[in-house]
Specification:
Number of strands: 3
Distance between the termini: 34 Å
Shape: globular
Strand order of the largest sheet: 1-2-3
Strand content: 5-15%
Radius of gyration: 22 Å
Structural class: mainly alpha
Length: 309
Amino acid sequence: MFAGQHVNVTAVRRKNNEITFYEVPKTTKPWVQKLKKIPLLRGVVGIIESSAKGSQHLNYSFEAYAEDESAEEANTNPEAPAKPKKEEKSGLSLSMIFGVAIAGIISFIFGKLIFTVTPAIVEELLFQNAFDNVIMHNLIEGLIKIVFLLVYLYLISMTPLIKRLFQYHGAEHKVISAYEAGLELTVKNVQKFSTLHYRCGSSFIVLSVILGVIIYSFFTWDSLWERVYIRVLLLPVVLGASYEALRFTNMLRDTPVLRVLGYPGLWLQKLTTKEPTDEQVEVSIASFNRMRELDRQMATAATTSRSAS
């Protein structure tokens, strides 16, 4: 999936080798747009928005896969009862889109709560009476969180479905890098680049752990329950601060001395990206080119509309 200025586009290769697209124009409510201009708050709004949109596009990919599997099964076993054919659409119904978006937001919040609360509970149970220094407790909590995260990513990356997803993640990074280098977007050119990229969301995950340790150190607690609800209440602050830190490190990525600030995120991408095949790179190039084409069309239409008014 690639996000442009006016549209988000996902490309999927079907069983018949055809590449189809799921295209969603960017439409943001005026009040949401205002929130996205406020430091700290814009990070939380952006994360929720990305979770919702990402879930929609993933759901489209899974639906396309399921349709192809059903078609293949029907060809293999003609006597099997036919499944009701879905209404042909270039996407999902409005109710389905809304439901998937809400599910994506809930999944993100639930997952973030688990990775925030569980390390705090484990650290409290294991090191409660080991020392009184709050910063030490927070550092150990952060280390436990990182271990949980690395183990989780390693385990899911071993499943065929997630491994394929991570390969497409790597393909997206390669396409962006080739485009930023000014090269023609061919499979040969794109494959020369690394699967790692500074502006990836994986860097955000690492920053949220590091900044969480710092922010939590300003607060003390007298019980496990108090420690847990402090983490929950401060979660939006940590997410907002992490977003701002990611923007800051991206601005410094071309400064030789300071670009090291982005290294932890790049290291994590060694788990969240895999080397893609040429066919996967081809799909990513098609998605990126389609996004740019639609962006140009929408920008031209907007300019024409303003001139006419």
